[in-house]
Design a protein that fits this description.
five-stranded mixed beta sheet; 15 strands; 7 helices
């Protein structure tokens, strides 16, 4: 914890500021929403939260780079903060409380940039999760009031709970048949969506989850939290970490079988 304690504390400060800004505009009748070139929505709250986080980082970590969903990459160097100001914007603009601010610090290493700190804050659900490399994963109200997270010990797909966001994207990748086979093989399936399935994997209430289309800011904070809870996070081809364009998380015991279904090896 000592290596990243100050960075983790800073990430909580950033999350506190973002929570205040996003909750202030949640369900606002005059919330302004635009459509980005990829046809996904962005609200004024997304932009304001990212600007707020960037401002804090400029003052507290002026040498670090920043990558955010709304304003791209800024700066260079071996340390990079990765921000998704509102993961679940479609929920946010419709008044659904399942959305969160995702904040991660990534460091350059032999295998490229990897997350070393992650905070996922979902203020409308009154929940927050976090982790730092080598220090475990936690959930609670603050650093001093928290419970340690552990993934489940479920060992078979037939006994597993599988969470996903939607059916969109699986067919385009030629993985829909494998995805459907997996849903039939599992004990339970639910489309919780966005960050939440990964947090439930870390908590042990869900055993496996996957998404076919993601960006780094969707995954970095989730990945370190799952990993520090004892689980595994890879892309759909099995490369560890959030470096791909999709993601799969599990308790570790089911990971190879999860990927086997999604790549139609079963």
């Amino acid at each position: 914890m000592s290596d990243y304690h100050d960075d983790l504390r800073l990430a909580h400060v950033l999350a506190d500021a973002a929570d205040a800004a996003t909750m202030d505009r949640f369900k606002a009748l005059d919330l302004k929403v635009e459509t980005k070139p990829d046809m996904t929505p962005v609200s004024e709250a997304d932009k304001a939260a990212e600007e707020l986080i960037r401002g804090h980082l400029h003052r507290a970590r002026p040498r670090d780079a920043i990558l955010g969903e709304e304003y791209g990459i800024e700066g260079t160097g071996p340390r990079r903060w990765v921000i998704d100001p509102i993961d679940g914007t479609k929920n946010y603009v419709r008044g659904v409380p399942v959305w969160a601010t995702l904040i991660s610090l990534m460091e350059a290493g032999e295998n490229g940039f990897q997350p070393v700190v992650g905070v996922v804050s979902a203020p409308a659900l009154s929940r927050r999760w976090w982790a730092a490399k080598g220090a475990g994963a936690f959930s609670g109200r603050s650093l001093t009031s928290a419970s340690r997270l552990h993934v489940s010990k479920v060992e078979t797909i037939a006994d597993s709970s599988f969470a996903f966001s939607s059916l969109t994207g699986w067919e385009e990748q030629g993985r829909l048949d494998g995805f459907m086979d997996l849903t039939r093989a599992c004990w339970r399936t639910r489309g919780y969506g966005d960050f939440w399935p990964y947090m439930m994997v870390a908590e042990g209430s869900v055993d496996i989850c996957a998404e076919p289309e993601l960006s780094l800011w969707d995954m970095a904070a989730n990945a370190i939290i799952v990993q520090e809870a004892g689980g595994r996070f890879t892309d759909l081809d099995g490369a560890d970490g959030p470096g791909g364009f999709n993601g799969a998380a599990s308790n570790g015991l089911l990971h190879d079988e999860l990927l086997g279904y999604l790549n139609q090896r079963y």
